[in-house]
């Protein structure tokens, strides 16, 4: 008989706070806004909460009573940008969720996910969309974890070591809980080093890719995980083993905004270890660690949004089964620290030239006109010039016959 804890049957109603920035309209027929990079520090801190309640009475196929779902989300970011191409990015996230159903009398923790990461990126000059990176991250749970026996009967549990050998057995009664993990258990520390690529950035899509080598350290800290065997009537739980893994790592992330009100985000993480300290029979692709996450949200107002989340994780050295969580919730958001706004400059779209258009005719400039030149009207024809009439010309003066001619004397000879 296979026992499944009631917590796994509850739809997890927790989503990260809105971490997608609102972009400008990306339609090509409108002026685009060109954002200038603002260098220096960029802090951001947001919080949001979710609450849902449902009650049923005398409904066929349902248990009478109330169902509560309470969630809390904290999201933070601190980024430093340098003019010389250096970038330091720090992220913080905490998701906490509690549920209560008519099947048990107390609130039960269904999700507790705390993550922090710090990454250094160097943008190569002239090709600042790529470069080397180094990253350090931590993932754990801040509160104790437990499982409630909601089967309505006594439940026998077999405790197994990491190799599958039985350590002991215990029996718990209905409505009783079993301690599974302590605070900060399990803790996974990740380090990676390699190259990053940002192919392009548009409001509707901002892809980001990392490829390199990484190391994972998993600390179970005395925690347990479900490893039930359907062939046995008992419920098996297995001790989490402390391990170290070294191998190749590939990370992909993309976020975007569609029509300013719809945001989405996609993440995928793959880590194939080439070396591990675990004494396991798994090898090759069976050791591949995979982590997928998808989020989408629709903004109803400044403080209220409807969001959907899907998450699937498989870490074979922790659990060989897929850990799947998804949910749709109405979340209430509040910004505690808002990132500084980056000024945007509108660029007017210039009219495009027609392909078959003829070049405009350029006329030479006319020489400047002198002030003495008489002004003429272009519409007035030039005056007609007629030759002079000889009859009207003045007659020459007549010669005077009484005036004697001038006397001319001969020149005297020179003296000898």
Explain what this protein looks like in three dimensions:
With 416 residues, the chain is an all-beta fold. The protein has one domain. Helix content is 0%, strand content 50%. The strands form 4 sheets. Strands 2-3-4-5-6-11-12-15-16-17-18-19 form a 12-stranded antiparallel β-barrel. It has a 4-stranded mixed sheet with strand order 9-8-14-13, with no helix packed on it. A hairpin with a 3-residue loop joins β15 and β16. The relative contact order is 0.15. The N terminus is likely disordered.
Keywords:
disordered N terminus; globular; 416 residues; twelve-stranded antiparallel beta barrel; four-stranded mixed β-sheet; 20 strands; single chain
Estimate the global geometry from the Cα principal axes. globular
Q: Helical element count? A: 0
Number of domains: 1
Helical fraction equals under 10%
* Residue runs with pLDDT of under 50 for 5 or more positions: 1-35, 344-350
The tally of beta strands, per DSSP, is: 20
Adjacency order of strands in the biggest sheet: 2-3-4-5-6-11-12-15-16-17-18-19
Report the mean per-residue pLDDT as an integer: 78
Q: SSE order, as H and E?
A: EEEEEEEEEEEEEEEEEEEE
Strand portion, in percent?
over 45%
Question: What can be said about this structure in brief?
Answer:
With 416 residues, this protein is an all-beta fold. The protein has no helices and 20 strands. β13 and β14 (235-239) form a beta hairpin.
